[in-house]
Structures are given as structure tokens and as C-alpha cells.
Amino acid sequence: MQLTYAHTFLLPREIVWELIQNEDVLKHSIPGCKSFTQLEDGSYDVEMGLSVGPVKGVFTGHVQMTDHQEPSYYCLKVKGKGAPGEVDAVAHMHLDEAENGVTLNCRMEVVVTGVLASVGQRVMGGVAKLVLGQFFKSADTEMRKLTSQV
Amino acid sequence: MASLIGSAVKRKEDPRLLTGNGCFTDDMKLPGMVYASFLRSPHAHAKIARLVVDKASQLPGVIAVFTGQDLADKMTSVPAMWFLPGCDLKPKDRPALAVDKVRYAGEAIAVVVAKDRYIAQDALDLIEVDYEVLPAVVQQEKAMQEGSSLLHDDVPNNLALLWKAGDIPDQVFEEAEVVVKERLYNQRVIPNPMETRGAVAQYNPGGGELTLWCTSQNPHIHRLIYANVLGIPETKLRIIAPDVGGGFGAKIATYTEEAVVACIAREVKKPVKWIEERKEHFMATSHGRDEVLEVELAGTKDGKITALRVTNTANLGAYLSTFGAGCPTIDFGLMVTGAYAIPQAAVVTYGVYTNTTPTDAYRGAGKPEATYQIERAIDLFASKIRMDPVEVRRINFVPKESFPFGNAMGVTYDSGNYQLTLDKALELFDYQAFRNEQEEQRKKGKYLGVGFSTYVELCGFGPSAVAGAIGFQGGVWENSTVRVHPRGTVSVFTGTSPHGQGTATTFAQIVAEKLGIPIEDVELVHGDTQSVSMGWGTYGSRATAVGGAAVSIATDRVIEKARRIAAHELETTLDQVEFINGQFTVKGDLTRCRTFQEIAKSANYAWNLPEGVEPSLEGQSFFDPSNFVYPFGTHICVVEVDEHTGEIEIKRYVAVDDVGRVINPLLAEGQVHGGIAQGVGQALWEGAVYTDQGQLMSGTFMDYTMPKARFFPPIESAFTETLSPVNPLGAKGVGETGTTAAPPAVVNAVMDALQPFGIHNLDMPLTPEKVWRAIRSGRDNG
Q1: Which of A123, B1, B104, B469 is deepest in the core (most CB within 10 A)?
Q2: Inter-chain touch A119–B700, beta carbons under 8 Å
Q3: DSSP string of B643-700, one letter each residue
Q4: Least CB-CB distance to A113: which of B124, B125, B695?
Q5: Shortest Cα distance from A115 to chain B (angstroms)?
Q6: Is the CATH code 3.30.70.360 the one for domain B14-134+194-246+251-284?
Q7: Which pLDDT tens digit goes with each residue over B440-467?
């Protein structure tokens, strides 16, 4: 399944580039995030509670950021599994200059299995948009908090 | 006394079921019972790299957790039962629980036994599994291609079987006046009986007896297979099919879960229950159909069909299911010529393993697919030669004088009169009036269509010698014991194990009519391997034709013995005793008589029996029919297609079926209604959808459309009775007529409606979107 999402931050691109990959920002912005731990190789172990329509469960996963082209692109790889099934996602994150800030264009390829696929897929598109929306909104708030403190 | 056979007796079963007093598998509650839940693979094809159950085992309330490895020395894999010869069959058994590799999404890999269902479910979440995902193959033609991912290392090209029957030189088609060729897809459907599967098992460690209550259409077949799987003698394994809430073929198969439940009940020494959830059912109970049918029909310009050849590429799923090898070959292949005298026919079937739920018998099992291709091909042929499809059927029907008729595939149709059902259906329908209306409506932009299906199907499996010749690992005879108690009431033991058909009523009608006693005095005993000696299953519309015939013969034997006792008591000779309406009388002297009940008492008390006659009154029969039976009929469907939305409305549905002797018209009509609902369901709404990775997308009732009563107009049903010569009742079979006849009747009707748009073929299900796209593009299959 392909998903796209765009969010415009009214912040300079360099700041967004740095903060969108910041551990604290991520920890506070990922919906249902229970833990977010950096590993030695720079990737993260994550645990999150997810609720997709009728499908609910705790997912444990692994997040890795690669192919950095500062300040305009990086690739986000997410692998997760939980009782309802497994998720394997690759997201291409493009930071494009916009009026008064930067637009983060996210293009995502998601593969799901198990009940997530058979029951969840019907509602997945809508829910994913909702979850992504929550994430970017929270990230925006977190970034503002941090930048005003700086 | 009015004849009971042929009268619309209300079901004896219903008061019990309708007042909540039925006993289904899930109603079983045993002291100390615990519950099992299965962990199922989310992947369609993956290696199991790591499987750790420690955390689950430690959850309070969990009694045990088993993996495939744990069960390795406790039970075997579960084999299929139909090993078709001459097709290079590579049977692959279902493992008890997958060990190294999973081959379809939903395959079980571990089982938890816990104090209650909730704890068992929670424990599943604590089992840790790492999978190495492998590429999946889902579509059968792709799975056969060179380089496709293999399910089983020793099955090249995933080809489980290649079956060929008949051969027609290419020349016949090259030189034919007219040839029609079409690729049809008979899509995968999910049975969904109202009751899902389930099992309750109880083990007696003292004597080693194991009792398994399960949702089975054929408890004796379950005993036959599971005794071996569990390593227990048949004498100590008792299978009970209590009330069973529908099966449609899906409860023929001997699955792994029921055997695992029996195995772990023996291990934990407590009764264990497992009830399949609906979402499990979608993934783990066998699916039906899924056959790609390439049909080629040769004929003359004046409508005579000269040859037919068909290639069936059948999706068998991940393992070979119980009857999996037989459905797309014997059941399908022998019936491809349908109700028509086609001189030459040939069939090739590829059976292919894929990363999907195994497929097996589903209401009709092969015959609906065979009927679909021939009935669709006839319409395509009619359209090509610009002849009325009814006329083409008439021209090619096997004439009634030709029965018994040997078709081009080598089977002999027992009896038939195809013109009779067609004439009766046309009379009910008023064909000419419809064509006039269709013409009128088209001018107004309303698109009506009519579709015909003049089907014949093969039912009532027997004789057993044929079963042996086609590699079926069992017999197909049936037995009955009719036991008369001292007060004249009768217990009828039958190997036929019903799951909603109303057999306890129809069989009681047969016995009550023959013995001249009230139907209330007759009770059926069935579904328990300990009380019934043998039974080969309720499937293939064989209950009445084979099981009912055994009941009929056993009852005759009761009468035979009772007559000897009566003659003795009446001090006359056997040939002077008449038995009418439950009374034995001396010919010409009505004052000298004995009631059936009086003889029942005499036989059981045994105070004064004739010489050489043993006490008690009991008849037994083991009936092995001499041939299959071949019900047939004409279904006519009228639809209206909305040009703007692609929506299809069924305006009329006329069904004239000939199922031989109708024992109970009420129940026969019920079978016709249900069958048509399922057949129309396949034509218009149902369909299992997988992603390329083998994820089942239609895994709930929100994604999988079941037919509902409000989708249908009143069904106009009628019967003709052409008796079968192969059983004493003259009965054929009624259970599968609807699913066999309806899909092509509906699709032919829609194609007739879409004729102005230049559309000839759309694959089922004919969803509004598909139809709308086709109308917009003016192309087949949109």
C-alpha cells in the first residue's frame, strides 16, 4: 500500500532537518509511543500502542534512518510486529523549501500482514493519515517548544 | 392413509433447534474442561526462524503450550484421502502445526491450552516468533511458471497433479465450421456455514479411550483418518458429530485443529475445547472453486456441437486437502459435456500448490465449475451463430430415449428427460412475452436480460468399486439398522450424518410410510461412531439416494421378518399374508389380522416364534449403489442492469429441478432455495481476494458479501420426477442443484442484458464496479 502525506512547518529547513530526527521530538510525537531507545548503530527500538479500527495491539519495532542528503532527503525504515500482524514500511522523506518554512513530503510504501491486512487494510489508509497527521502536529508543537527555548 | 413419502412434513428437528435446545459442539460442557487457541501465521510464505513460548507458558492460567516440534512424536501430519491415479499426484499433508515453514496466512504454528478462552488468547500474544519472509505465489498460473517460489522443495513448478482425459486431434477444431474459445474464471469462495468449526475432546487415561465431538459431515471418515494420525485403534476413538450448523463441504475435510485438540486432551488429561472464530474460519477452513477454465467448443452453423475441450488450472492451496485432488478432476472432468450429446470431449487439469488456504469440496465440488463452462460456452456459441440459446440447448440435449446415456467422458447418466424440465420452466416463465418486453425496455434505456442453465450433475457417490478405481481411500456405500422396540416404536441407525438437511425427517418418512406407523414413532440415530457401524458421509447429494436407500432396504427386511411371525400367529402361509397400512392380514379375511405393534411385541418377547426365526425385530442393510445418480433441471434468471451504476437486480428466478423421487417437497424446495442463494452469491457478490503477498483481503463479513434474503425475489420452484433406476427409492439428490445451476444462469442473464454494449464475458463476481467499467469501456472484463 502506498501512502503520501505532506506537512508544512513554519520553521527554517535546517531546524526541521535536525529536529525531525531528534530522539526527544520523536519520542513525544509518535502516537502511542511507549518507549524509544537508541541503539549503538544509531537505529532505534520502539514500542507503540496502535489502534487501527477494529485492530488493536502493542507493536514492537525497529526504526532506522538512512541515505541522508542534508537538508533535503532521508529514508526512514520501519519494521514492527504485534499480535495483529507485522508492518514493514519504507518512507521517503523530502524536505522542500516552502513559503515561510519547509514542507515535509512523506511518501511511504507499507506492507502489512495477518489480521492487520485482512481486517485492517480496509481502514488502513484513513487511519494511517490520521496517525501521520497526529505525528506531524505533535512534532510541530515539540519543535516550536524547543526552538523557543533555544 | 395419505402417503408420507412425497408430503411436505415439517422438520422433526425444528422444535428442538428453534427453542434453543439443540446441542452443537460449542454446547458441550464437560467437568474440568479447558480451552485451546491457535497461533496463526501472519505471513503466507515464511521460514520460522525462531519460536519461543516461555512467556506464554508462564502466564497464570496457562496449562500448556505446544509447537509443531512438541507434537512431532505425539501425532502425524494429516493426509488427504483421495489419491487420484495416473496424474503424477504429489500429495502434501497438512502438518499438525507448521514446523520449519509456513505456507499460507492463517496456518497454525502453536497451540495454547488454558483455563479459559481469554487467558488462551492473551497467551498467544506472548509467543515470540521471528519469520524470514519468502516470496509468495498466489495465482495458480503464475505459480506454475519457471522460477516461481516453491512451496514444497520436491514439487517442481508447484504442480501437484496433471490429469488428462480424452484426446481430440487439433484438426477437429481447425476444420470445424464454428469454434468458440473463452477463458473463464470460477473464482475462489469461502464456505461460511453459520456454525464455524469446533472440537471438544475427552481422554480416559484409564482405558485409553478418546472421544472427540466435532463439526463433521462424516464422523466415520474422521475416525478413519484420525485413528492413524493419533496412533489409536478405531475401537478406542469415538467421534461424535452432534448438531452441526451447516457445512457445504467445508466440514468433510479432516483438518489438523480437531486432531490437535484430541492429541492435547490426551497430553493434558483434561477435556479440551476449541471453537473456531469467524476470522479464523475465513483463513483456516478450506475454500472452494478457484479454477481457471479455458474452454474451446466446436460446432456447426446450424447449432450442433461437435467437440469440446477444456483446460482447468486449479488452485489447490498450500497442501492437498481431503478431497482436494478429486474436485477439479473427476468431479469436474467427467461432467464437462453437461446435458448435451457431444460426441468428443477432452479435459486437462493442472492442480497447483499456492500460498493460499487449501481448497476442497464446496457445495457441488467440481460440478458447478463444469456446468459453468459448458453453460457459458453454449451461450457464447449461440451468440456467435445468432441462434436462440434455448434452441441450441434443445438441439444438443441428450434425448430421453437415450438413457442410460454414456457421455463422451465415459460416465453413464442413469436417467433423464432434459426437454421436460426446459418445457416446464418455459411454461412458467413465458419466454416470448419476456423477449417482447426486453425489446420494449431497451428502447427506453432499460436493460433486461435472461439467462438459462440446463444443467445435469453427478451425485450419490457409488459404487465403491468406482471409488477404488479413482483412488478414493474409502468406500461409498451406506448402511442402516432399523430396530423395532417391544412397543412398536422404531430407532433408525444411519451412517448418514446430517448437518442441516433434515434427514431425521425425510428418513423417518420413509420408514413410517413403509411400516404404516406414525412418523412420531420413528427416531433417527446418527453422527456417533459408537452407535452406528459405518457411514461414508453426507456430501455429493448422496444422503437420500444412498443412505436413504439403505434405510428403505433395512425397513423392507423388518417387514419380511415381521410377516413370517404374523403368518405363524395367524396360522397361515407366508404368501397369504398382506401388509397394508401397518396391518398384517390374511388375504380375503380382514378379521384375521395383527398390527405392526403386536408383531413388534411378539418378536421381542419371543414367546411363540416360528421355527428358525430368532428373537427381536431388526433389519439391516449395507447398500452399495450400482451407479451415480444424475439430477438435472432448467434454471431461468431474469436481471435488470443499471447502465449508470452497473448494479444488477434479479427480477425473476425460475427453477425446475428433477431430483428423482421427492421424499419431502418442503425440504427439497428449501434445498433449492439455499443452493440458489449460494449460487447467485458466487455469481454476483462472493469472492476471496488475496494480495500478491498472499494476504487475505476479504477476511471478514464486511469485506466478503454473503447473499441475504432481501437480495432475492421469491424463487419460483417446481419439480419433475424422473426416477433413478439405481436405488429403490428412485431418488437422486437435491442439495447441490442450486449452486450448480445458478452461476451460469445469472451470468448468462447479465451478458444477455449487456449485449447492446458489445460485452460477451465478465468474470464472477459481477460487482457493480466491474459491470460499470465494462459498460463504460465496451470491453469484456472492463
Answers
A1: B104
A2: yes
A3: TTT--EEEEEEEEEEE-BS-S-HHHHHHHHHHHHHHHHHHHHT----B-TT--BS--S
A4: B695
A5: 7
A6: no
A7: 999 999 999 999 999 999 999 889 999 9
